[in-house]
Amino acid sequence: MIIGVVVTHASPSTQLARCLGALLDDGGLDRLLIVDNGGSAVVPERDDVEIIRTENRGFGAAANDGVDRAGELGADMIALLNDDVVVRPGWLDPLASALVCDHRVGAAQPKLLFADREPPTINSLGVAIDEFGAGHDIGFGEPDREVDAADIVAFTGGAVLFRRSFLDDCGGFDERYFLYYEDVDLAARGRRLGWRYRCEPTSVVEHLGSATTSAQPERTRYLQERNRLWCAFRNGDRRTIIRAKWLSVRRLRHDPKGVHAKAMVAGFAGAPVRLWERSRWSRSR
User: How does DSSP classify residue 66?
Assistant: First the structure.
């Protein structure tokens, strides 16, 4: 069994060094791939470390580039990490065991904790989807505690181990999202094909927080809102789609009104394509 680890990186920061340092200190990696997504990453010169330099085409494109290269190297499982996470020792084995023990588990997510926070605080135990089509991290902001491994509806793309055949089956990430909801969309497409997902809390990863998106709050809000609509049109039931649209209209009353309006227009404009894709999938089943 060969496991490839893909780290996506998009802008200069000290976080990448901490991320790579923790991975290399833990050891046992078959191959570490850094996708420098329009950044200027400096990485250790080692035989088991490879850097892939691309223009910034978004998170999904960077992840797909890394996954494709890991597949070329013969990886059976592929871990995907953002550059703003720090793994704790022994993080990989519980995730790999979850995939080995059940061939229908396509992805396993660790427990994500906020880094350097006291008392220890949960960032994510998986992702849940609400009635408006919005994704929410399970356990977000709650005190850290012992929890059992559990099935989850969706995973966060910031720290997850995939079965390669799951990614092949689903066709990888949809690069049109650019950033946000591409992981929720991938999970939804996989569920339709019968795949399951697990959170394995004995695997622990710390989240430092993204310097890239925090510096662009309006861009972040636009992408989150537009992509929530796109994902709902493609994957939600009729009630979810209605509520997703209603929430976008309601948000026009709140600042920044212009950002909400642009996101709603772009989200609605993307509806015909995504509804057609949904219909095509239904006919093919």
Answer: H
Residue type at position 74: G
8 A C-beta contact, residue 94 and residue 203 = yes
Q: How many CA atoms lie within 13 A of 152 on its CB side?
A: 32
User: 100 in helix, strand or coil?
Assistant: helix
Distance CA 41, CA 172 (A): 24
* 145-185 per-position pLDDT tens digit: 999 999 999 999 999 999 999 999 999 999 999 999 999 99
Dihedral sign from CA coordinates of 81, 82, 88, 89? positive
- Quote the CA–CA distance of 64 and 22 in Å, as a whole number: 23
Exposed (0-12), middle (13-18) or buried (19+): which is 261, by Cβ within 10 Å? middle
Alpha-carbon gap, residue 211 to 229, rounded angstroms: 25
pTM listed for this prediction: 0.95
CATH 3.90.550.10 fits 3-214, yes or no: yes
Domain ranges of the chain: 3-214, 217-275
Helices (H), the chain: 15-26, 59-72, 92-101, 164-170, 182-192, 211-214, 217-235, 238-250, 257-269, 271-284
In order of 48, 63, 79, 94, 148, the CA distances from 3 in angstroms are 12, 15, 7, 13, 25
